């Protein structure tokens, strides 16, 4: 794990990359997972990391994802509104 904490910009970039297809769900999940258990100073960043960690989970083998793109987009919109 990096010694630096993720910023709000880092988190937003992960949401955007996931939604535009430049990162996979697995890549975003692994990025967020590195911060599991870390002492994050920013509650909004912590909230977003919690959403992103597990974004690759499905309803069983070969099943649809637990959280679809529409829900992820709503998390991003909420993140942006809470950040402003």
Salient structural properties:
84 residues; mainly alpha; 4 helices
Write the layout of secondary structure elements.
Elements: H1 8-20, H2 25-33, H3 43-52, H4 69-83
Task: Describe, in plain words, how this protein is organized in 3D.
- By secondary structure, the chain is mostly helical.
- It contains 4 helices and no strands.
- The model has no long low-confidence stretch (mean pLDDT 94).
* Helical residue percent band: 55-70%
Order of SSEs: HHHH
Count the beta strands.
0
Radius of gyration: 12 Å
Regions with little confidence, pLDDT below 50 for 5+ residues: none
| Total discrete domains | 1
Distance between the termini: 28 Å
Count every helix, treating DSSP H or I runs of 4 or more residues as helices.
4
What would you call the shape? globular
- pLDDT averaged residue by residue: 94
Q: Structural class of the helices, strands and pairings?
A: mainly alpha
Quote the beta fraction.
under 5%
Biggest beta sheet summary: none
Write down the oligomeric state: single chain
Summary of the model, kept short:
It is built from four helices and no strands.
